[in-house]
């Protein structure tokens, strides 16, 4: 038997930090998630898979646009028309009701666990291979409860688990927190997970897999995106899996270490060379310029300007683009001995969580978004980086402070 | 460092005044107003940091040029430090530069570089000292303007090497931060972005309405489609009912028809078979009459009145005669042609025949004789000549022998041909005749040859010598012959010519006979032509072909007449026959009509029509009856109300029309809903709104990060300065709070220093009831207490770095008894570690602070 497992299509989901793109390029970005989904369906049909598992967050919200719903319904119908069994759940973003879906009724379509009830469905492939899928859908955006105890013990058939959830590790996890061991103990043959956008295999015996999302939407979602194609040896029950990239655009982060001051054109040529080397199909690059101490104010201003990136993009292959530039210091600004130590200590103190929170207090109070950003480690990391850049930039102004 | 001695020389009102301070840290200078307390404070400051003369005058330390105008002005201060005793002496005389005066520093009596002293007090300037260590009424007023910044600057000065630049950077970063975000603003980038985000969010939430709207429309659509289906069902039912009604109305109609038909139906006495037969007979009569009429019309009288068989016989006779004549004529002509051909052949084949044919037989016989004669003479001559020439016999014999076989060959050939002919003719008689003839011919010829040979030999031998003469005679003879007959006798084989001549003559005789016969036949022809002309009454040429043509024409004419006669006879017979048949058929018709009791066929036909009508009525009746079915019995039993039926039907029709109208409305509504739903199906609005939200969120994120980074970078610098200055500022602030609380007897708990001074962000204090009050709202007394708390805290805080005495100059004017007690207690406490010089005109205070205050003594 063959199956495809994908999750987190997030149709309708916006793309962050790309509003400066030219309209036609922007349209391509906009269509990329749809394209990826279409490719997954193409793959399912071409591979004649028996089953497609959709592990939640197919839509970006519980009230997706009719256009997205219709598109999704159309793609699913292509599968059901090809007599491919589709089993789908809702995630924390698309916590809808089965009745909200515009997917055409078909014996080949099953929405599992509507109303947040763990449900098991049994199927037989055309070749007579028996399998079951057990899982649940979100009925609200948060599930604080560990749902694993609700999963029934496995039967003699090949058992799939289907769940949109995150591991318990992080505090304040409200996405059906589970412990890996619990999941392993269930001994389902293949646990198809969704929610985490970075694909990862949590375990290979039994399989516990996050396929990642189907299209990277911003610099936080790096690397190849697509789906898992699984093959089950019907005689032995052994499963092999293969990641199939289907995304039109791949996001990559490239760090460029500066060791000396470069002229404007030298630096640009170096950036182009560096990025061109790392193009794999259409790639969107986030560039980190490490060693901003070596940049002049003009260069800093230039590289912070989105329009300057366009010039680099023009020189990249495969329609790739530079869409993000970040700066980082190398720490070459030197203050006099005791001051240096004081700065180091001050930085550590000020940038410690509590201090940070205290400093951001009024800002944090302004909006939920502030709090969300503040809870995002990437945001904090970026912030700390920026603090350093700013300090370095200012302190470099002090006469003779750069240790060149 | 403890100030041990103050020596003033020509300074302000003082010419010479020395204060030696007793042991202990709290020194009280008591004196009435104008006693010189402020001058002393100014002196202490100015000796250390320079005189304030005219152009270097500060705002409140006035020019202390000596009243006595005695120079040099100045004096000295003696400090007791850990490493020894320092004496600072500053003097200035008019015209000296710098105007701040000349400073001499001695350590333990030895002059040392002034830096040795000033390094110990961190090289602060006079401003710093005045601001930090001197308390007087003028400075007190500054309390409302105190800001963290200023205090910090003073504090950090003591720590980081580039504190002022760092403070400037920090200030810049703070400025940058506050240009990005302010808690209550709507103009700063972060605020603007957030406002946008919030607006977008509302809109994006509204975009969720698109989902709802689509769902609602979908539901509505389903509902409307359900309704439409219901109405359609209703319509179908109504139509069914209406059909039933229509059928009922039809049945009523049928019943009415049934009744009418029933009335019309009656029996008719009619025999269809008889009628059909009558019609058939009548038709036969009609046909026969018509036929007879036609036949009669076509029966034309014959154009001639001849005895046709007789004529036929006559014609045959003529034809026979003509043919006989023709046959004979043809035979004669053929024979004539054959003879003519024979004659021509003879003429052609026989040389010189043409020259002899015109000769009569006698003439020819003479010719024959002439020729024979000639020949004989010639032969004789030849013989003579031969003899004369002595020619051998052998040659002659050879010639004779040569001739013999020829004759035998001819005979054998003749015999063979004769046998062949006889065999073909199968006639032995003919054979015999032929053999006889053959033998005859042979012997005749053989004889002749022998004769000729013998005579020849004789003549030759006899007349050899007379040869020449003979030759001449022979030539003459020949000439004579040729002149007579046109040819030379030697040129001819007379036997051939004889034979041919005879044949020719015999043939000519036959020709004559045949020509005569032809004449006779021509006469017969003329006679026949005459006969035919008489018979046909048309002129007939005496030409066999014409006669034959005439006879053929006559034959045709006769044949036509014969056919016409035959036709006429047949037609006449047919008419007679038909007339007989007509009479029979008419009789049968009349009999039938009588049997059916009708006068005429027309009457019979009328009766038939009636019968048909009745049959039709009956059929209609049956059909109506069938259509009515069981209803007939019900109608007959109970009748019906037609008008009620019609009304019910009309109502149903109306209901149907109404239902159809409603269905149309529903369908319109459905199509509207489809269109409206369709708009959403293609709408990119949700995405656009979300994208917009994401865009603004990204902006907010970016600006916020920028803001926070600036804020934090500033804090890092501040914190770094704190750390570099050993955390003096926070410690100082804490101390100040403690002091303030102490000085106000616990009525105030906290001090909130603004980052920088401004009207909008004044220094505030927190009362015991947690209420925050800007400093300007505090009573003068409380303000003074705050001022004391802050400054004292500061001084205490920097004590390890700058250990100089605190100078409190008559500043307690506003302190009431209770407050004075507090300050006195505090000063007493502080003075345990720090030297404090109090200059006061208040005796109670002086006594409270010191058992033995230093008193100003009026100079002489």
UniProtKB/TrEMBL annotation, chain A:
Residue stretches making up the Calcineurin-like phosphoesterase domain: 1-198
Pfam families, alphabetized: Metallophos
Protein name as catalogued: DNA repair exonuclease
GO molecular function per UniProt: exonuclease activity
CDD domains from the UniProt entry: MPP_Mre11_N (cd00840)
PANTHER family given in the database record: COMPONENT OF ATP-DEPENDENT DSDNA EXONUCLEASE (PTHR30337), PHOSPHOESTERASE (PTHR30337:SF7)
Keywords annotated in UniProt: Exonuclease, Hydrolase, Nuclease
């Amino acid at each position: 038997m063959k199956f495809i497992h994908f999750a987190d299509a997030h149709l309708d989901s916006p793309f962050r930090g790309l509003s400066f793109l030219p309209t036609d390029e922007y349209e391509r970005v906009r269509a990329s998630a749809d394209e990826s989904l279409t490719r997954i369906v193409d793959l399912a049909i071409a591979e004649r898979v028996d089953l497609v598992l959709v592990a939640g967050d197919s839509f970006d919200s519980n009230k997706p646009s009719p256009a997205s719903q219709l598109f999704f319904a159309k793609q699913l119908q292509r599968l059901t028309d090809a007599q491919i069994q589709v089993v789908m759940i809702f995630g924390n973003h698309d916590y809808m009701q089965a009745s909200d879906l515009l997917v055409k009724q078909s014996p080949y379509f099953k929405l599992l666990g509507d109303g947040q009830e763990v449900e098991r469905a049994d199927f037989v492939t055309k070749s007579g291979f028996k399998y079951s899928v057990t899982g649940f859908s979100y009925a609200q955006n948060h599930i604080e409860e560990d749902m694993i105890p609700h999963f029934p013990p496995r039967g003699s058939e090949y058992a799939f688990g289907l769940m949109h959830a995150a591991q318990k590790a992080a505090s304040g996890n409200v996405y059906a927190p589970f412990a890996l061991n619990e999941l392993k103990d269930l001994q389902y043959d293949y646990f198809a997970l969704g929610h985490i956008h970075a694909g990862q295999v949590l375990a290979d015996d039994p399989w516990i897999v996050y396929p990642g999302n189907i299209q990277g939407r911003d610099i936080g979602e790096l690397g190849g995106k697509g789906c898992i194609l699984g093959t089950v040896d019907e005689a032995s029950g052994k499963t092999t899996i293969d990641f199939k990239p289907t995304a039109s655009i791949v996001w990559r982060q490239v760090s460029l270490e500066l060791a000396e001051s470069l002229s404007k054109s030298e630096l640009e040529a170096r950036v182009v060379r560096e990025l061109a080397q790392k193009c794999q199909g259409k790639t969107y690059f986030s560039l980190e310029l490490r060693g901003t101490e070596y940049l002049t104010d003009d260069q800093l201003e230039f590289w912070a300007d989105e329009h300057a990136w366009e010039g680099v993009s023009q020189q990249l292959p495969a329609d790739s683009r530079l869409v993000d530039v970040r700066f980082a210091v190398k720490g070459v600004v030197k203050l006099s001995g005791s001051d240096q130590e004081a700065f180091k200590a001050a930085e550590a103190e000020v940038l410690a969580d509590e201090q940070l929170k205290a400093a951001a207090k009024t800002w944090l109070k302004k909006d939920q978004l502030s709090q969300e950003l503040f809870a995002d480690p990437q945001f904090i990391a970026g912030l700390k980086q920026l603090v350093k850049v700013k300090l370095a930039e200012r302190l470099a102004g002090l006469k003779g402070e750069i240790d060149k | 460092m403890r100030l041990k001695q103050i020596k003033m020389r020509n300074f302000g009102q003082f010419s010479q005044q020395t204060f030696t301070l007793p042991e202990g840290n709290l020194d009280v200078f008591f004196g009435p107003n104008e006693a010189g307390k402020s001058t002393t404070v100014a002196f202490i400051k100015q000796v250390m940091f320079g005189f304030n003369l005219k152009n270097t005058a500060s705002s409140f330390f006035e020019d202390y040029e000596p009243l006595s105008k005695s120079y040099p002005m100045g004096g000295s201060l003696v400090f007791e430090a850990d490493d020894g005793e320092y004496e600072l002496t500053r003097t200035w005389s008019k015209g000296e530069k710098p105007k701040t005066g000349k400073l001499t520093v001695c350590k333990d009596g030895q002059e040392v570089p002034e830096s040795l002293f000033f390094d110990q007090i961190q090289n602060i300037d006079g401003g710093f000292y005045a601001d930090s260590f001197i308390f007087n009424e003028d400075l007190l007023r500054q309390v409302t303007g105190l800001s963290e910044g200023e205090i910090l600057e003073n504090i950090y000065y003591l720590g980081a090497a580039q504190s002022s630049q760092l403070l400037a950077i920090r200030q810049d970063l703070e400025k940058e931060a506050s240009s990005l975000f302010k808690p209550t603003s709507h103009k700063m980038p972060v605020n603007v972005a957030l406002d946008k985000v919030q607006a977008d969010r509302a809109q994006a939430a509204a975009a969720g309405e698109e989902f709802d709207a689509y769902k609602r429309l979908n539901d509505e659509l389903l509902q409307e489609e359900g309704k439409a289906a219901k109405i359609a069902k209703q319509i179908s039912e109504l139509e069914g009912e209406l059909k039933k009604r229509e059928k009922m109305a039809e049945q009523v109609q049928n019943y009415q028809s049934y009744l009418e038909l029933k009335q019309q139906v009656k029996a008719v006495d009619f025999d269809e078979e008889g009628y059909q037969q009558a019609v058939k007979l009548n038709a036969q009569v009609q046909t026969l009459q018509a036929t007879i009429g036609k036949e009669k019309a076509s029966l034309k009288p014959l154009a001639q009145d001849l005895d046709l068989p007789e004529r036929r016989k006559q014609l045959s006779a003529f034809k026979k005669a003509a043919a006989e004549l023709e046959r004979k004529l043809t035979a004669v002509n053929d024979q004539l042609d054959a003879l003519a051909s024979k004659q021509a052949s003879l003429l052609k084949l026989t040389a010189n025949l043409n020259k002899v044919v015109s000769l009569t037989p006698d003439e020819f016989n003479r010719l024959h004789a002439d020729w024979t004669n000639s020949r004989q003479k010639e032969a004789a001559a030849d013989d003579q000549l031969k003899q004369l020439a002595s020619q051998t016999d052998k040659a002659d014999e050879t010639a004779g022998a040569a001739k013999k076989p020829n004759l035998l060959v001819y005979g054998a050939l003749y015999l063979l041909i004769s046998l062949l002919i006889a065999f073909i003719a199968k006639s032995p008689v003919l054979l015999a005749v032929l053999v006889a003839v053959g033998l005859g011919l042979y012997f005749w010829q053989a004889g002749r040859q022998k004769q000729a040979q013998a005579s020849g030999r004789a003549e030759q031998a006899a007349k050899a010598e007379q040869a020449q003469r003979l030759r001449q005679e022979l030539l003459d003879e020949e000439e004579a012959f040729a002149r007579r007959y046109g040819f030379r006798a030697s040129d001819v084989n007379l036997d051939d010519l004889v034979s041919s001549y005879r044949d020719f003559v015999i043939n000519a005789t036959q020709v004559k006979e045949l020509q005569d016969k032809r004449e006779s036949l021509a006469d017969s022809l003329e006679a026949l032509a005459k006969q035919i002309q008489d018979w046909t009454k048309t002129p007939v040429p005496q030409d066999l072909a014409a006669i034959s043509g005439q006879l053929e024409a006559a034959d045709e004419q006769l044949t036509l007449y014969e056919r016409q006669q035959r036709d006429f006879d047949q037609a006449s017979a047919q008419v007679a026959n038909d007339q007989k048949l007509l009479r029979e058929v008419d009789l049968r018709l009349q009999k039938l009509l009588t049997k059916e009791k009708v006068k005429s066929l027309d009457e019979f036909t009328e009766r038939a029509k009636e019968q048909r009508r009745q049959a039709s009525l009956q059929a209609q009746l049956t059909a109506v009856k069938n259509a009515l079915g069981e209803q007939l019995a019900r109608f007959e039993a109970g009748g019906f109300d037609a008008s009620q039926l019609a009304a019910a039907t009309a109502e149903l029709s109306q209901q149907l029309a109404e239902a159809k109208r409603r269905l149309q409305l529903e369908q319109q509504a459905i199509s509207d809903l489809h269109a409206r739903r369709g708009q959403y199906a293609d709408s990119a609005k949700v995405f656009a709104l979300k994208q917009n939200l994401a865009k603004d969120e990204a902006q907010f994120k970016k600006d916020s990060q920028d803001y926070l980074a600036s804020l934090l970078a500033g804090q890092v610098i501040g914190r770094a300065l704190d750390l570099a200055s050993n955390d003096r500022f926070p410690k100082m602030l804490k101390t100040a709070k403690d002091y303030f609380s102490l000085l106000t007897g616990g009525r105030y708990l906290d001090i909130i220093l603004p980052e920088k001074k401004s009207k909008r962000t004044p220094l505030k204090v927190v009362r015991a009831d947690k209420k925050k009050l800007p400093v300007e709202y505090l009573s003068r007394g409380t303000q003074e207490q705050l001022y004391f708390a802050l400054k004292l805290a500061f001084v205490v805080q920097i004590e390890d770095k700058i250990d100089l005495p605190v100078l409190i100059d008559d500043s307690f004017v506003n302190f009431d008894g209770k407050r004075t007690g507090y300050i006195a207690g505090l000063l007493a406490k502080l003075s345990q570690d720090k030297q404090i010089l109090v200059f006061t005109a208040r005796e109670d205070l002086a006594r409270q602070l010191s058992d033995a205050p230093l008193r100003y003594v009026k100079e002489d």
